[in-house]
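#lab-general

N.A. 3:47 PM
ok so I finally got the sequence cleaned up, no stray characters, all 161 residues accounted for. can someone with queue access submit it? mine expired

B.Y. 3:52 PM
send it over

N.A. 3:53 PM
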Amino acid sequence: MRVYRERLGVPFSWWLGGAGCVIIFGTLTWAGFTVAIGLLVYLALGALAAFALLRWGSAVITLTPDGLTAGSRRLPFAEIGAVSALDEEQTTVLRGPRSDPAAYMVVRPFLHRSVYIEVTGKPYWLIGTRHPAELAAAIEQAMTADAARARARTGLGSGMQ
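B.Y. 4:20 PM
back already:
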């Protein structure tokens, strides 16, 4: 069961920019060739642009009862410390001049806000999101539920002995 899910897809304006680049580069490349070659150039450039935008927008943030998955990594609740939603200025500072090179970041230039996650024994995680307050609240709630389940398992296990 998922508690929270967000796909970090590229915005529509980036698709328009990609289409503009395809038209400009296609026209420059096509100049002097036949119409058939021109169509092949446009198709190839369009496919390349679409692949790049789809690939870049394929990152997913998923919160389940087992932990948090952001991009290709998973973080169990036991390793999560403080969680806070960041505004644009705080996000810029943490992914720029004050960033830890060892930190795990799932950020995109079109995502101006993020969630900071303190990780026990490791560098922090910085996750770009369109809904930082909702994600931070969902992580906090899931951590509380996970702690309650752990206490219940421990209580049941000790009561049976």
